[in-house]
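A note on notation is needed here, since sequence and fold are reported together in a single record. The reader may check this reading against the record printed directly beneath this paragraph.
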Amino acid sequence: HDARRNFIHIEDVAELIAATIRRQITGSHDCAQLQPVRFSDIVAAAAKAFGSRSQMVFLPQQPDIADNICAADDTLFRLLGQYPGISMEQGMEKEAAYRKCMQ
């Protein structure tokens, strides 16, 4: 099973928190990517960003990994007038660039 997750880039989270504070929005709100990504999408994005030919394989003898996703709720994003903007691919490219600079 190609499990799905609602990953959101930390830069998006930081900007959304700052915007929430600036606009004095209170309450409890979801802050998760609205479009879940599959593990295979994460691996593909990382392989591309890091220039790897690695591939993901599923071992049929292993139990399935369950999805762990939130129902799409864009209430906070609508209140702020902004949505997460960094895709999985862009996030992996940022990480690869950062690691290259740190070498």
Observations:
- Residues 88-102 form the longest helix (15 residues).
